[in-house]
Design brief:
By secondary structure, the protein is an alpha+beta fold. It has one domain. It is 37% helix and 15% strand. It has two helices and four strands. The protein has a four-stranded antiparallel sheet, covered by helices on one side. The longest helix is centred in the middle third of the chain and has 51 residues. The chain is rod-shaped, with a radius of gyration of 31 Å. The N and C termini lie far apart (68 Å).
Length: 156
């Protein structure tokens, strides 16, 4: 221990009752840190939600590309040289609608898929409400392989 020059008392080096009063953070310091963390969280949460909904859109892109590829294969193998047009919507509730073109919809699929067209052309559409608002996310792919997001639920 060393002596304090002013009071001629021993100076405390972090032990004892005086040190306990002097160490730690004040309430104001803790509140400032809490406010800063709150501001950072408020800025990060919307970005996280957007990236989460964008990742859900990858399901639609993947399945529509599979439909396009398998439709071309089906047409090449078909005796009538035509595309497969199913009689209904493919979804998690009806996963076997597209079995003829070797596609099974997953149990946790978010989108519903509809294929319409004729012998020489088809259009496959994927629709879902991926972020629980009024806007329905819609993706369309045609027989030429053009993939378009006609209604983007992420931006609305």
């Amino acid at each position: 221990m060393t002596m304090n020059k002013r009071s001629k008392r021993p100076r405390s080096f972090g032990f004892g009752p005086k040190a306990a009063r002097e160490s730690g953070f004040t309430l104001i310091e803790v509140m400032i840190v809490v406010v800063i963390i709150g501001i950072l969280a408020a800025m990060a949460l919307p970005r996280f939600m957007r990236s989460s909904t964008r990742s859900k859109q990858s399901e639609a892109k993947l399945i529509l590309k599979q439909i396009y590829t398998n439709q071309r294969t089906f047409r090449q193998q078909s005796q009538s040289n035509s595309y497969f047009i199913p009689g209904g919507v493919a979804s998690a509730a009806q996963p076997n609608t597209l079995n003829t073109i070797w596609i099974e919809i997953m149990q946790d699929a978010k989108y519903e898929y509809l294929v319409v067209g004729g012998a020489n052309a088809f259009t496959a559409t994927a629709t879902a409400n991926i972020d629980d608002d009024a806007t329905i996310d819609t993706w369309v792919m045609d027989h030429n392989g053009a993939l378009v997001n006609t209604i983007n639920d992420v931006l609305n």
